[in-house]
Structures are given as C-alpha cells and as structure tokens.
Amino acid sequence: MTPMRRNTIQINFVQVPTQLKELVAKLVPTLEEFSGLLGISILEQTPFIGWEKVIRPEDIASALHMTKAEVMSNWETRSGIKGFLTKFLVGKANQFWDSLDFQAFEDILALLIYGLVLFPNSDAFVDVNAVKIFISCNLVPTLLGDILHSLYACTARKRGTLMSCAPLLARWFISHLPKSVFKNKEGMGWAYRIMYLSHNDIIWTIKGMEDVAIIDRCGEYPNVPLLGTHGGITYNPCLALRQFGRARREGPHELLMSSIVFYFQGDSDEQRRRFIRAWDRVHRSDPHELGTKTSLPMEPYL
C-alpha cells in the first residue's frame, strides 16, 4: 500500500510479498472494530441505501443548526451532485465557535469529516450522500461496506486507489500491528517493516473485542449484506472470529463464506432491495455463542 494524495491509498498487488498478502488476508475489518475505533454505535436499523427520498432543506437545517433559507442558498451543484462547499461549512463552524455554540460546532465539524475524510467527493465539496449518511446516524455499516467494496474493486483489477475511508482503514490495520513495527530505527518503509511479520507477531484481538456481541447475519443471508456508496457486498464475520478472541477448530461452512458483490450502476435493483430488507432482521451473537475463548490459532485459520 502506497500513500498518495490526501485520504487515498494506492494499492499495487504486484509489489506486495506473497507472505505478507497471506497474513493480511487473515485480518478482516469488522463492524465492531470500526464501531470501537470511532466510538459510534451500530444501530439495528437500515443504514444508507442510496434510495433515500430527496432530503428536505428543513431536515438539513435541523441537523446542522441552520435556517432553511441558509441551507437553500448554499446548496450547490458540482458535477451533477448536490452538496455544500467546504468553505461555507468551515465558515459556519468558525461562526458557531465564536458564539460558543459548541454542539453546533461539533456537528458541522463531524459533517466535514464525513464529507472530506470518510466519503470524499472532492477536496472542496461535501456531497449529498455524506449529508444523508450523517443524518441517518448509522454510519458504521456504510463505512465498512464502502471499504470492502473498494478493496474488492482494487483486487479485481490487481491495482487501484482506495478513495473511501482510507484513514480509518489505516488506523484499523495499525491497531493490529506490534509495537516493534513503530520503532523503526533503521528508517525502513512500511512494506519492509511488516514484510517479515509472523502470525505470532500480529495483535489478533484488540482491546475490548473479546466480550462483544457481534452482528453475524441479517435477514435471509448467512452473513451480513452491506451497502456502500457505489454498490453492495456481503461480509463474513465467521472469518474474523480470532479477532474476537475466539476460534473454530473446523473451517466455516461454505454457505457462511458465500459472497455477493454488485455495483449500483449495473444492478437490476432487486439485489439492493434484498440487502435493504435484510436489515429489518439483524442477528447478534453473544460472545458465548462464538465458540471457545482462545488466543491460539487453529486450522484452517493458520
């Protein structure tokens, strides 16, 4: 992985050593880990679906502590997409700070993070999707869906640029690395520092993840269907049990590992509807349902 411009990661699979690819492939970003890193709960309600009704100016105004007239006069269009210019939101944040309205300041700052860091459109624009996700208050599933969908696209092409949520993905990955990687007295690049890590070096279970209930399936699916901003993808928590301090002795059933990936532009809409309906029935497994607590790697997860 190579840093590019702000908030992006260039992924070149040709340059990544096989040993490292195999090790990294055994780490799976999870809803619960992202929730912990962000300090944001996962709600058992339908997250962003891309089919939300046209957002009303009064709803935006209420969420952002503005007047309806102020929203309408600053609701811009860039490349056919509605949203706010960054300079307008920064100006509002400064205004709220000066007036000591810290709740309003924090909400505007949060929206800027959504639009510029987590779901970037351009460096000077916070688009309508970021606003909708902010108002939905169920951010984590969309974040993970966006990351997994982007990683799938990069993998399919053997290279590419991860645009969405790159800082969060980097923060998650770093949380699983040993402290020795950060000392770096030799001044080596990241690829060289982690190239020779073994299974015993990885911090498989980060603090606070051993005793959490995890979302392991939704609706008709044996796994978790996620919708990002460009498409949908199923995510398999059964592959991440070791990250919750658990491990199965037998491999997961093939059905549990089934995967579905689609793009909004090429979908007939039926798959998206099924994903949406699935979030009406969210299933969480308590820690004792996940298997024996252990830190030992077991086949076939080695």
Describe the fold and architecture.
- This protein is α+β, with helices and mostly antiparallel strands and 302 residues long.
- The chain has 2 domains: 2-47 and 140-289, no CATH class; 57-137, no CATH class.
- It has helices spanning 18-24, 31-38, 57-64, 68-74, 86-98, 102-118, 128-136, 139-157, 166-174, 180-183, 190-194, 270-278, and strands at 2-3, 9-12, 76-78, 81-85, 125-127, 159-162, 214-218, 224-227, 231-235, 261-263, 282-285.
- The longest helix is centred in the middle third of the chain and has 19 residues, at 139-157.
- Mean pLDDT is 82; it is low at 1-16.
- InterPro entries: DUF7745 (IPR056647).
- Residues 26-301 form the DUF7745 domain.
What's the SSE blueprint?
Blueprint (H helix, E strand, L loop, with lengths): L1 E2 L5 E4 L5 H7 L6 H8 L18 H8 L3 H7 L1 E3 L2 E5 H13 L3 H17 L6 E3 H9 L2 H19 L1 E4 L3 H9 L5 H4 L6 H5 L19 E5 L5 E4 L3 E5 L25 E3 L6 H9 L3 E4 L17
Helix pairs in contact: 3-4, 5-6, 6-7
